[in-house]
């Protein structure tokens, strides 16, 4: 294709506003996918995405559009996730585009992630095309939303596309706007190759598949390429585009989005954000690349079967190619053996990583309770970064402990301001300010400990505002807090993987709550198991798991054989997810017990 006929754009939105459905309609309208192959949310091709109904990964496809001006255009569409934990995927997608389609739900209006995502696009100087979606809903208020986009975001929405992705309304209007408003890419075709790696995935047969946006030059099979950051060189075996199935091409040119394979087996050589150049005629400077993401939460990941440690390492390395925000380093736990301390952008991210490791790499894992990074200021003047609560130094050695704070922006209808403030206060929040966006909506801003916000804050926020409030947050430095480490002892032995950090004010109550919870979660064995919670040498709570009396299945021996089989099966599966610690079997649930507060 000629550069003037190429259009590169992302679709961004708050979660559930209809991006993936809109992408479906665009693929249909442009006959990219044959009718018989069409299915809902076709770009959400991971099972996990389809089951949960959310987009986790960015997804780039090429499609051709016969426009009203009589020309045929080559579109590269990148669908992106809406959830805050995956905003790194959004920022990487935007760097590959000239335009962004901003989808706003006509009934919900602008929400926290609408703002966060559109600001990313504005920062990247992209042309923004607002689409007001779901106009078919009885509760839709498109004119109000149009005004909101102008007042709150500050962009012109007079031409906003009025759409229903569900009913297929407004799609052609949008496609025409993409042709007429999104600038065609430029970039010197004769210059040395510069291609930005915005994603990658490991394929057992082809090696690493690089998703790239070419900014200058061209690339074709047989070319010798160099990854500028790592210096590694390879010979290109294939170039192509996804549509949405991979289609080979003779070459890719500046302005295009596509993939490159080069039998790259050395995973460490590839990094998202790196620049691909031509080894024989290299570019002088790499492209700017991406800002590194700092993980917000850390948790230990351990194979239930200790022999699977190497498998877990390989799986993490391969997954990281496709999930640039994932971080990991080896760690050992007395209780759990060899595993990895992993860094995540949030709880959903952590959940998704565990599920992908188990499904895509066939592993059974135990995850420990997530924790933030604390700074322990020691008596000797040094600072220790503590990502794992069990590594918190002895009380005697610590002068003060600091914890990360965030600036949280909560967008809520007027009526729920009281409920939101009450919740923030309860989570140790400090009120900053309140901004009225219009007559009925408010931005409530608080500074709060990250540890209070990552776990169940979002669920609590949703339930106390009937689902209307939305949340965005950014790190806001470290502050001193009165924190203590609580250890859990089973059968008199400290279980390092169950230690957690709490504000002193809540320490005793949480110690008691958790002891009781563990009592209910850990299965009875043929001896008594005392459970204790302790701060240093001081025991703050204790309970006991009684010894069991009889086989659980004994009672239903005469009952339905199907049911008995199912129960046994369930017990077996539950057991796989257990870790023997000393003489006690601890199920996965126990490690998460510390999270369920209140
Ligand atoms: P994430 O990928 O998870 O961020 O969500 P999304 O923005 O891609 O939303 P998705 O396309 O999955 O749509 C969310 C829900 O809204 C689905 O149940 C869709 O069927 C529904 N939906 C999407 N577009 C429309 C529309 O135009 N009208 C109506 N009534 N429902 C729609």
Write the layout of secondary structure elements.
Elements: E1 6-13, H1 19-29, H2 47-52, E2 59-66, E3 72-79, H3 87-94, E4 99-105, H4 112-123, E5 127-133, H5 142-153, E6 161-162, H6 171-181, E7 194-203, E8 207-216, E9 218-219, E10 224-227, E11 233-235, E12 238-242, E13 246-249, E14 252-253, E15 257-261, E16 275-278, E17 297-303, H7 309-322, E18 327-333, E19 337-344, H8 347-361, E20 365-367, E21 374-378, E22 383-386, E23 398-413, H9 417-426, E24 430-436, E25 441-449, H10 450-454, H11 457-464, E26 470-481, E27 483-490, E28 493-494, E29 500-503, H12 504-521, E30 529-535, E31 538-545, H13 561-576, E32 578-581, E33 584-587, H14 588-592
Parallel strand pairs: 1-3, 1-4, 4-5, 5-6
Antiparallel strand pairs: 2-3, 7-8, 7-16, 8-15, 9-14, 10-11, 10-16, 12-13, 12-15, 17-19, 17-20, 18-19, 21-22, 21-23, 23-25, 23-26, 24-25, 27-28, 27-29, 27-30, 30-31, 32-33
The site of guanosine-5'-triphosphate has 21 residues, from helix 1.
Characterize the biggest β-sheet: 8 strands, antiparallel
State the strand order across the main sheet.
Answer: 11-10-16-7-8-15-12-13
List the uncertain runs: 554-558
Query: How much strand?
Result: 25-35%
Oligomer designation = single chain
């Amino acid at each position: 294709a000629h550069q003037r006929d190429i259009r590169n754009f992302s679709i961004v939105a708050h979660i559930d506003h209809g991006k993936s459905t809109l992408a479906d309609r665009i693929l249909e309208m442009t006959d990219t996918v044959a009718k018989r192959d069409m299915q809902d949310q076709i770009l959400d091709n991971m099972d996990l995405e389809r089951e949960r109904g959310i987009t986790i990964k960015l997804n780039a496809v090429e499609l051709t559009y016969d426009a009203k001006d009589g020309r045929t255009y080559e579109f590269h569409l990148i669908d992106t996730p809406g959830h805050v934990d995956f905003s790194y995927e959004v920022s990487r997608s935007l760097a590959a585009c000239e335009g962004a389609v901003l989808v706003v739900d006509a009934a919900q209006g602008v929400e926290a992630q609408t703002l966060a995502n559109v600001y990313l696009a504005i920062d990247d100087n992209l042309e923004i095309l607002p689409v007001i979606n779901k106009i078919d809903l009885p509760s839709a208020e498109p004119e109000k939303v149009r005004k909101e986009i102008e007042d709150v975001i500050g962009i012109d929405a007079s031409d906003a596309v009025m759409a229903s992705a569900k009913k297929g309304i407004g799609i052609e209007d949008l496609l025409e706007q993409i042709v007429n408003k999104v600038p065609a890419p430029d970039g010197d075709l004769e210059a040395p190759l510069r291609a930005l790696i915005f994603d990658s995935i490991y394929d057992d047969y082809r090696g690493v598949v690089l998703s790239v946006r070419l900014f200058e030059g061209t690339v074709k099979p047989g070319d010798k390429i160099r990854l500028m950051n790592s210096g590694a060189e390879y010979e290109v075996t294939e170039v192509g585009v996804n549509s949405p199935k991979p289609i080979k091409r003779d070459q890719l040119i500046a302005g295009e989005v596509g993939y490159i394979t080069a039998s790259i087996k050395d995973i460490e050589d590839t990094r998202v954000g790196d620049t691909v150049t031509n080894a024989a005629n290299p570019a002088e400077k790499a492209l700017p690349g991406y800002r590194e993401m700092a993980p917000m939460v850390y948790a230990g990941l351990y194979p239930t079967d200790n022999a699977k440690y190497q498998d877990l390492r390989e799986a993490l390395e391969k997954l990281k190619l496709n999930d640039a925000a994932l971080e990991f380093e080896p760690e050992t736990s007395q209780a759990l053996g060899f595993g990895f301390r992993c860094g995540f952008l949030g709880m959903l991210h952590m959940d998704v990583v565990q599920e992908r490791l188990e499904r895509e790499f066939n592993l059974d894992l135990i995850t420990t309770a997530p924790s933030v990074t604390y700074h322990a200021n020691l008596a000797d003047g040094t600072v220790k970064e503590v990502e794992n609560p069990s590594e918190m130094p002895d009380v005697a050695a610590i002068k003060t402990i600091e914890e990360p704070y965030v600036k949280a922006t909560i967008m809520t209808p007027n009526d729920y301001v009281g409920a939101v403030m009450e919740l923030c206060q309860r989570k140790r929040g400090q009120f900053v300010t309140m901004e009225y966006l219009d007559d009925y909506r408010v931005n409530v801003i608080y500074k709060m400990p990250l540890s209070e916000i990552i776990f169940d804050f979002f669920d609590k926020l949703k339930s106390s505002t009937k689902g209307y409030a939305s949340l965005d947050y950014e790190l806001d430095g470290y502050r001193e807090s009165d924190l203590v480490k609580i250890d859990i002892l089973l059968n008199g032995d400290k279980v390092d993987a169950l230690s957690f950090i709490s504000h002193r004010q809540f320490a005793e109550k949480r110690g008691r709550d958790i002891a009781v919870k563990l009592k209910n979660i850990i299965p009875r064995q043929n001896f008594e198991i005392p459970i204790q919670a302790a701060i240093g040498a001081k025991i703050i709570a204790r309970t006991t798991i009684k010894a069991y009396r009889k086989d659980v299945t004994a009672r239903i021996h005469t009952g339905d054989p199907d049911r008995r089989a199912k129960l046994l099966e369930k017990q077996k599966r539950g057991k796989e997810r257990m870790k023997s610690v000393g003489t006690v079997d601890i199920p996965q649930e126990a490690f998460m017990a510390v999270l369920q507060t209140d």
